[in-house]
Fold these 3 entries.
Entry 1:
Amino acid sequence: MPGYNLTRIEAAARAELITVHGYDITLDLRAESETFDSLTRIEFACSVPGAGTFLDYIAESVRKVELNGVELNPAEVFEDSRIHLKNLAAENTVIIHGDSAYSHTGEGLHRFTDPVDSQTYIYSQCEVADARRIFPNFEQPDLKSRFVFHIIAPAHWTVISNQPTPEPTLLDTPDSARWDFGVTPIMSTYLIAVIAGPYQRWDDIYVSTDGRQIPMGVFVRTSMAQYMDHEEIFDITRRGFEFFESAFGVPYPYEKYDQAFVPQYNAGAMENIGAVTLTEDRYIFRSKPVEAIVAMRANTILHEQAHMWFGDLVTMKWWNDLWLNESFAEYMAHLAAASNTRWTDAWTDFLASRKLVGYQQDQLPTTHPIMAEIHDLADVEVNFDMITYAKGASVIKQLVAWVGQEAFLAGVANYLNKYAWGNATLEDFLGEIEAASGRDLKRWSKVWLEEAGVTTLRPIVVERAEGIYEKVSIAQEIPDVYSRFSSIPHRDLPPIIVEPSLRPHHISISGYVLSAEGLIPAWTLEADIDGACTDIPELTGQVIPDLLIINDSDLAYAKLRLDEGGQRILPQILCRIADPLTRALVWGSLWDSMRDGEISTGTYVDIVLKSIGRETSSTTIQSLLARLRTTILLYISAEFREEAQVNAAVELLNHAKQAEPGSDQELQFFKAFAGLACTPAQLELVAQVFDGVEQLDGLVVDTELRWELLTYLVAAGIKSEADIEAELALDTTLSGLERAAGARAAIPTIEAKRQAWRTGVLDDTISNATQRYLIQGFIRVDDPALLREFAIEYFAQIEETWATRTRQMAQNIINSLFPIRSVNDPEIDILHMTDLWLDRLGARTPALRRLVLASREEVICARAAQRT
């Protein structure tokens, strides 16, 4: 937003000038209003007496600013998001009294009233730079300090912060109390936590390796307490502590560990020190979840735990190393899950749900190096993506394979001990890994962290007549996709050039053969490959296996191809591959080959429908079903789309009926069938299941599934507004209200779509969660012509949206409402419309431009796929 930014240059200059000794913050959360009283005292040193600096503060108003005992005129020193302080002393005390605004969009201090019992709940979300929405501060990660919080709130509330919760002091005002928290360890502003309301809690203890008893708490709002499976949350958390303390060689560094599941949350979770917040909507299960979501919750819990050491104890100096924070936590979470929980196939889940998205984002014109240059806060928002998470974690996984896990973890332990309670950089981290492993990581860092893009690995096989290999080589290729980026309209801007290097890879190569146990590896060898072509002499004279896999165990970050023989027999043998990770590799190769035009969309759909019924990995099934839907709706040409959708629904229903009753597969296949059902008979069956007239053995049509089926039926014109109201009467919760909003947005009339557009795009009072469900319902249409007028509205509106809405709300609109379904509308040339808008935009708002460019590439991909 204008006036809300902070540049790296400004932050570096301020860090040279200022040392922050401590914050003392009082927040009064009692009033039922849109603002809360915020009183802050900050003590800090200035290395150049007489100089000036500024505090960051986004507030409705500032009542008082006092610097070193002298009151300043707020109107003169408070501007946009800054309080300017001049003529500083060597040691300074500033007191600011302001009115901060509650958020309903998930940034700063979010306030929510539960429709079930009218109870109010509050929680903070401060990453990247939203602590300044709660209290004035020096909002940058390298100005660490200590914090003391005093929270005034209704006496019956539970109040949580980074330090253990003290006994409250009752105040004279009825039902009022004050919680005076102890001083925190040294920490960054974005890691503070304030969580308040009548939360229900559960308690447990973890005994640390240093003998301390670490209190653990789990919290959720009262109306959701019946669904809280706290025993599993504690079990995962305890296993995480066991693994991380052993792996890092450093005991948990804080006094307690709370986890609060909160409503209307923008992210999956946030690693606030000692007080993690997690999304309630996704991770508290009112109905039976698919196992993929349960596994994702476990991974998220472990991810945030890993941050307690890497990110919290040792924090990046500036946001350009945010990728390292997230990539490391992502890697360690999956390693912990695979090593010390029941989710032993965590790396399969990583490949199926995360890494494939990373590959896709790395082939967009908006791709960027993992170690992106972050000039300001606006850059952070658009670089917080699957390149940051998935590609970064993949590259760390490859680094571990290269230097060895023991050496890697020894380097991590040295890093954590050396930089504890301070800030560090990528160079500091790699220095410790180099010292522990003896490897020179300079070239590795350059080609993997400082260059964008992905390459393709393809086996080149020469066979002898007697069924053995004459020669096997691994070719490394630069995908053709990058060559078209330079033609994107770029008025006032340089053309987009992405030129990935032919990088070094450490890979496993396996030959799989059919056996009674399925397709299993007969032999495996490891190889280092580099450049355009690497010979594998060990395979000369080797008997040709049934299937050759050249990136077995998924060590490398690269697109994978099969040899011609493997590609030819794959439809017959894919479902017989015994190892779920290897299957996920092959599934990913098929998807990528289809998007690259190497196999047809029809072939891809046929293989998925033939083999998915034998798939056992819940996350792989979930990923395949999402990609199957995308292929049918966007990638298959118009003359074949309806037939493909009908046939896919038929096959998915068959898979659901053939699955074990009550199984994860049955639930996933039936939901996918319902989402693609389009013939009168198919839709009638969905309606009968919804109404309880028809049943599938073992399938429980519970609350969440009812809303999902109802939304499908509304979009198809089978159910109406009256049915939505009837369902809402049965589910008057927050979730019910949000899902009803989504169902109304799915009504297939232009009037309903216009109302959804007005509410979801133009209404700045809507909550973040309601907006997400509205958008999901809005874009669910059978006839893309229903959205035709909104393609024009989209390009007319988005620049204003970017300028006036909070970043998360704006990105929801710009990413999710891009008119991609118009690629199937013969009356609209959506690519031409996009290019005209890009040309008009020019060099304005680069971050917004990047978001639209990413969606433009999906149009290109869809058009190309429809021609295959």
Entry 2:
Amino acid sequence: MVYNPREIEKKWQKYWDENGIFEPSNDFSKEKKYILSMFPYPSGKIHMGHVRNYSIGDAIARNYRKLGFNVLHPIGWDSFGMPAENAAIKNKTHPKKWTYENIDYMRNELNSLGLSFAKTREFATSDPLYTKHEQNLFIQMYNKGLVYQKSSKLNWCDTCQTVLANEQVEDGKCWRCDNLVQQREMPGYYLKITAYAQALLDDMKELKNGWPSQVLSMQENWIGRSEGLEFDFTLDEDSQEKLNHKFEKYTVFTTRPDTIYGVTYSALAPEHPIINHLIEHNLLDPSSVEKIKQMRQVGARDRAMAQKEGLALGINVIHPLTGKKIPVWVANFVLIEYGGGAVMAVPAHDERDFEFASKYGLSITQSISVNTKEFDGNCAICDYGVTINSGVFTGLSSSQAKEQIIAHFEKYGKGKKVINYKLRDWGISRQRYWGAPIPMIHCPNCGLVPEAIENLPVALPEDVVIDGEGNPLVKHPTWKHTICPTCKTQAIRETDTMDTFFQSSWYFLRYTTDASLWQESAFDRASSDYWMSVDQYVGGIEHAILHLLYARFFTKVLRDLGYTNASEPFENLLTQGMVLKDGSKMSKSKGNTVDPDSIIKQFGADTARLFILFAAPPAKELEWNDSAVEGAFRFIKRLADRSNNVSKVHTLPQIDHTKLPDTSKYARKKVYEALKKSQEVFTNGYAFNTLIAACMEALNALGVQEDKAVWSEGYFILLNILEPIIPHICWELSDSLFDLKNFTKIQIQEEVFDEAVVVLAVTINGKKRAEISVAKDASKEQIFAYAKEECAKWLVDQTLIKEIFVPNKLVNLVVK
């Protein structure tokens, strides 16, 4: 047949849509597979990263459908967010209009790829109905004590005019606009993710076989569980008097109580209450105050990377075991969010403490001896060892000292063993318009109260001015004025909107429910229990901490609220690599982008899909290659052209393998090798490149034989294998040749691998010189003799040193 991709692809896309081919069944007795690729932000046009992400997910979904599974493979739009407001300012349009026009355009682009999405379950997170249910979930979380409001130092992006979570600050800059982030004291709403810190850690064991170890490691480090000793440092009398007796002591936490005899100073975070008191009561000189203020302007991540800075506060605490006075400093490396914002410093055994002590000339005392390292005062020794200079605890191993020192503190009421986490509660307040309004009301009588459920959704006003200056919801003349649902008096609506990660933390649960039930609830319990967890999730590793951690947290919360039986959202995770061009990530600013629309227009969607899945394994980076795209097109054209050799059948032909010539036997073997490879690839790693290579070899092998039945069998199987990858041409050929009867599970015919003759490569000093065909049961002596006969001209005047035989593969003759 003549290959016309534009005509074929439009034909089958229309057929799939009109017949609802890819819609999931509501028969929950069937075995299911839920395949999901991370939904896109409607930025305007798809890019090659989208093509890769959705081609991978689509191949997996299509394969499971062929095998008879009930498959849910949905699509939607992560449609709230700052870019819409920026576009509104730039283009003088409304964020809603910009967003939904982009959705329409990108939907058509994705449709042109022939992706097998369940289109009846499509939604955008900015849809009022989605917001209604999301606000209800927020209120349920608030009522359960998982949402609270507090004022604290927050990351503020002046360009985006909004607060950022710690996870959204990268190298001191906003993750969206790349501008420097400031620290501001602001009120905000927080989700108590810390209440689930241990559960998030414990349940990682359920994911270790299905998630990349790198992602699990990143989450484990971000949660940051540590066990140690919590105790109080008591201020000496002079220091208490200096602080007007407002403070008697403060609490510190250490994971290394075995080093406590090496403490030579203590350090406080710049935001610690004692520091505030010193500043407010003019107990520090102006230059010190200015230095502390500068420290406060730097975010937590950047402080960790910065040079160690600090200053003495002129106060002291008493060592709880030795009774000695210890000077107290303020230091930029101490974080108010962790361990109470105060630390005991052991410069001999902590690199950070050593750097600080060395810089400011503070004393250094060794309290741990390590056999393999001698302490010379030039660097810290952080290894575990044996205690020295540690009073009654001298001579103990570090583990023994930890245990006994904690026991001592607990016995005498000086401290206790505690577990700490680096993970902080998730601040979700954003001072912007295009987001889901937080459904809370500030009442002068009742205080902070949630909106009544019957009044949801709290919808955004559309008559707003988007000019980039402040929050349009605050400036709107009427929207924020409302009635308290409790006492019915005039009240003020909350003008903050939710972090967009709130929407993407539960969208996968919404998909589980038939659209006919969407009005009633966020998602149906029976549907969720059937479809969850997602069997295969596909997306970028850049979401390892933010989205993936939040989604795990939400799933556990919604389980505890009775919405679902699932404890984990995603059973298996595939993190696809980036698409590169000229060695760099594709970027408009670099001018190295490739427009998917132009590739589809020139070569067809099947070519785009084939190239993107053939160029590299899914988890690896993919380098764009124009000639490889053309090669993919030529392969599909060859597949179409050679279909003229195939006779129309409805089942696999019955073939007597023993009566076939060697070329036909070899062709059958390569076809079934491809079928085996397909089963392997779809159950272990999705190395589509190896599967496609096997199909190419099989097609080549078919081309050098003439048996019509073998041709028909070959295409019956190859079109089945390739359908998840290049669906349009496979449906076209399968429809005309097999009435689509080949799109089912196919059994491997083991007979094709039983060969009377084996083809072996013959190499001399590792270089291939010939191929020989020998009887399967030939002896080594016979094989070596035949190999030497075939390669006689390369053995002239050579001394044979060694003969090597690798069964079923090769003979290597070593000469000199």
Entry 3:
Amino acid sequence: MTVFPVYNILVVPDASIYIKTETYQKVTGKAPVPDEKLVVLVAKEDLRREDFKEDSFYPIGLRAVITEVNANGFLMLRTSTRVNLDDVAVYSDHTIDLSLSRRPDIDDLDHEDAQRRLRAVKSAMIQFAEGFQWGQAARAFITQWNSIGEAAVVMSPWMVNTNAERYAVLAEDSLSRRTEMLEKLIYENLEMGKVNREAESAQEQDHQKIYRESAIRKQMEYLQRELDEMHPENVTDLRKLEIKIEESGMNETARKEADKVLSRLKHEGQGAESALLYDYLDFLAGLPWKKETARDISLDEAARILDEDHYGLRKVKERIIQQLAVMSLKKRQAGSILLFVGAPGTGKTSIGQSIARALQREYVRVSLGGVRDEADIRGHRRTYIGAMPGRILDGIQKCGVSNPVMVLDEVDKLYGSYNGDPASALLEVLDPEQNSTFTDHYLNVPFDLSDVLFICTANSLDSIPEPLLNRMEVIPFQGYTPIEKEQIARRHLLPKAMQAVGLAPEQLTVTDGALAAIIADYTREGGVRGLKKRLETLCRTEAVKLVRGESESLTVTEDNLRDVLDDHPLPHRLVPESARPGVVTGLAWTQAGGEILYIETMFTRGSGKLLITGQLGEVMKESAQIAVSLVKSLYPEQAELFEKNDLHIHVPDGATPKDGPSAGITLTTALASLLCGKSVDPHVGMTGEVSLRGGVNPIGGLPEKLMAAQRAGVRQVFIPAENEEDLRDVAEEVRATLSITPVHDVTEVLSALGLAPKKPSPRPRRAKNDARPVPLGV
């Protein structure tokens, strides 16, 4: 006897079941043979032959015999009586051994009523089949059924009932109850079939309606275009806007919103809201929705353009070329968000224009200085009167392309207010993972910013929120040296200034000495903005003389420079020739570049108070307190001076706020000089943070500080040893002028300046045999 497990098939006694021959062979492991007796088992789940287990089957099965094996790949089983599975054994070769007992039915069926029900089921199934092409063939097949069980077994493949529900029919002992269950299954599935057929018919009608409507609309559009071409003077503004929307290429979400607003506009007519709706649609359709094709990037051409437009900035140009190389390899139109940080006038904004020119793309500049409202970035909601889009999308709409080079200028000058935080709104704009679906409040539909190459500029990192700063790669712009400024003036500033006022090259001559004097005496900055203004003043002066006929050309020299500029040289802080104890030259960094400062200390009669003046910040005050404690520990013999006198520490230029830890080494040296009564050469400068143990910690802004030291006449500079790597960023002319000494500890500085503290004399060692006095007990 063969065991044949089935799953999700309705089996009942006295019915014919059609099974695929291939399925039979996979489950039983052998080919079917006509008249072969077998037991049909109902599996609890879909099983492969190797997964058979004793508890894999329901406890009631069915005897059957193979009555037919046809050439179409099917075999027919004829079921007979139900059996109980008293014992099931599954062997290692996946064969199944059964211990069976007959399970009798309870014959409580009214056979006349059963025949009436069978006729009703046949009628319902014939009526259902008439709606299909195969209805006539099915009618002859249905009339041959002798029981509701046969009808249900034939319908089994199309039933939506579960395997457990199908087995429940086989497990029912009562014939009348089993007939009712089969009848219910048949009628339920017939109704489901009717519902599905009606739904498909309704769906088909809906589709036909949509197709018809689409065809009519296309025909209307074609006729409207014909009319517009015949009478272009009669095309209304609304029709022009409709054409603009159709040709914009906007995404599906934006098109739905545009169609909805356009429909409102048509119904609104000349109402109060029509102007607002028209402006919105005009802006929406005017955005560059279509993607621009990425162009090939020539690194050599890009490097040539950067060198042509900007002198110096070697490291900045190298990083830009790296960015362009990555974009070229990845076939992308955008890359990392670059943040250019440096003093005003160092070329941060203008280099963005050069990048756009090198990429042959549009240039957009968005000024963010002083922005306090989140709506300036994200736009206003259209419910407000006077609503406008944000500056980002406004700039893209005006440039007309989806891939401009956009410079976000002065991101360090964003300020939060009760209207929201614009810096937080920029997080989505500058995040490559989010800006592909940037949603402006005014637009209210997503717009793709992923092809925009964003470049940000700032003068300082202090006011930029950390989450925003993490999205950008910081590229510092160092201040220019006098030689670099002279080259920039000759190559760029002076020719542009002369062209701006209409001067020919032969009408104004500026000697090298005059140009050097302008840079040294009339400007005080890390950039070249002040130098540009001075050169423009020279050009305007010559323009006046030419118009009055006083001269045909002007030569500016060191001798007549002051008369031409009609201004006094700026008071530069230069190193004094004389020195006094307690005063030391330090170096500072400002947003305008580097500067030198002096730390002045003085003892006065008092009770050990510490007075700090010069508008110092909290960090610098803490550095002063650390310096006092450190000097006390280094000079214990003179420490009592701090207790018997008041100490006054002052940093000149009291109107200028000062802060930061980099003056620690200068404060310590100034106090040591005051305590020892020895003066420090003012041509020696220093910078570095000092710890309470005397270690010299690294600082920032070293290139700018060293430029300021050279400009002021400093000859030797002490710097933290950990900043030695930063010397690569310092101009060669600055390094050649200064003697730079890296130090690890403040005592190295004090020793080099002749202020080394005396080492305490060693305590005498006791001999090994010396007896230590022992106190006697009473």
